[in-house]
């Protein structure tokens, strides 16, 4: 990650959207920090993975914290150019597509599990993931995010 990325206003704003949206859907905080500058740092340094993508037809990841970057074995520039569908092996993309469709009606899905693959081909099984729609203060959908603290390399 770029050393000063947590200082950049776009990352601070996106961090607020991530945290506020999570709290909106789940009625609990993603992290306990709320100040914009410290929130961005708290999310990036969290001991669990956090990733998100935008609303494009073929969404591209736009955020990953340090834990997620390590799991996917990518740096920030490479991760933020990766289509999110490529984070799963081909045989698991249909399951992932079904789950993402459920988000349109529920706002979030919890207890999600699935196999993901790193840039180096390492497969890992995520468990108890929460996936949620990222929204702004007006309720407009900005993207989707996921967090998980449980994974196992296969």
TrEMBL record:
Residues 14-153 form the MEKHLA domain. It holds the Pfam family MEKHLA. InterPro entries: HD-Zip_III, MEKHLA. Transmembrane segments: none annotated. It comes from the Bacteria. One of its GO terms (molecular function) is DNA-binding transcription factor activity. PANTHER family: HOMEOBOX-LEUCINE ZIPPER PROTEIN ATHB-14 (PTHR45950). This is MEKHLA domain-containing protein. The lineage of its organism: Bacteria, Bacillati, Cyanobacteriota, Cyanophyceae, Leptolyngbyales.
């Amino acid at each position: 990650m770029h050393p000063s990325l947590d200082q950049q206003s776009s990352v601070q704003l996106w961090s607020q959207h991530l945290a506020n949206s999570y709290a909106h859907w789940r009625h609990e905080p993603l992290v306990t920090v709320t100040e914009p500058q410290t929130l961005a740092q708290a999310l990036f340094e969290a001991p669990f993975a956090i990733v998100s993508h935008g609303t494009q037809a073929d969404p591209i990841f736009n955020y990953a914290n340090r834990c997620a970057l390590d799991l996917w074995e990518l740096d920030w520039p490479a991760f933020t150019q990766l289509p999110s569908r490529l984070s799963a092996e081909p045989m698991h993309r249909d399951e992932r597509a079904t789950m993402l469709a459920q988000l349109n009606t529920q706002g979030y899905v919890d207890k999600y599990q699935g196999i993901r693959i790193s840039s180096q081909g390492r497969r890992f099984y995520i468990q108890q993931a929460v996936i949620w729609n990222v929204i702004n203060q007006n309720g407009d959908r900005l993207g989707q995010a996921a967090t998980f603290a449980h994974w196992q390399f296969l």
